[in-house]
Amino acid sequence: MEFDLLIKGGFVVDGTGNPWFYADIGILDGRIVEISREIDADAKRIINAKGLIVSPGFIDIHSHSDLTLLINPSADSKVRQGVTTEVIGNCGLSAAPIGRGNLDLLKSLWGSEAELVSWNWNTFDEYLKRLEERGVAVNVAPLVGHGTIRVAVMGVDNRDPTRNELEEMKNLVAEAMEAGAFGLSSGLVYLPGCYAKTQELIELCKVVAEYGGIYATHIRGERETILEALREAIEIGEKANIPVQVSHNCPKYGAHGKLPEMFKIYEEARLKGIEVTLDNDTHTDFNAHLHQVLPQWAQAGGKGRIVERLKDPEIREKIKREIIEDKHPGPGYVGLVKHGRWDRIYIFQCKKNKNLIGKTIE
To answer: Residues of the chain whose pLDDT is less than 70?
Structure first.
């Protein structure tokens, strides 16, 4: 037999959890057809992998490359790290579906990336077709974002959906699942997901469950409310009968030391038969934009509207008060501001005053 590709002498790490082993790998017609200690055969191409690790491609299970893959479909930064599959649409924010009257709101949630794509789609299916047309270099497992669904139907309003709006949201979720979404994601510390009540999420997840999908959630608080937020995520999974993936998991400033209690909640849920898993980040804070520490409503509409609000002394006082009150818990890094830890907030980028880069706000 002549292989198309023969990889010889590498340390094979096969992804099963087994220890590495030496092996040659023969590939024909795009498929691995032989793995042996030594393969004595011809090949159109032979790679000497001595001293190197040979493994399956990595799956990036928490990615926000929804727009990036349209901007740079070769995905160089991921491929060079060994990533061959990306799970996109996390934290409640996907690139579709679009409610045309609210497109500007959705673009403001995406930030500067939004100005680099054409937004020439409406439905989730149309968005996936745009990815296919661009010819992306990696496999894509898309989630539909709860926040994007909410924006499409009701903007960023701080209220419950009407009965008709909830039905419309459920229909959009069903359309996304039929188009190829793997599940629903939520970002309950972000705009507009922070305004959704538990029952709304249960109803949408019931639709996802009908298609065998999952619920991936950036839970409602990573600090003081982290235990209650984790219990809410598990409750949604239990009542909607859907697997739950908890994003990030790591307690941030204000919840340090709560991991043992969290693991107890996970274990108790799994003993009850609730399928709950997690991914973990390893940073203590985050490299966010400073405006992201503002209350969610104060971020609506993009930078221009943010600046307008900050120029109003009364609104500034309201913002200060609400950061401390933490009624709608923001992302983990908000804890540093809430607790006055300006010594831990470093400036990484500043276009006008570059001499500030590397300094703390304190």
So the answer is: 284-286
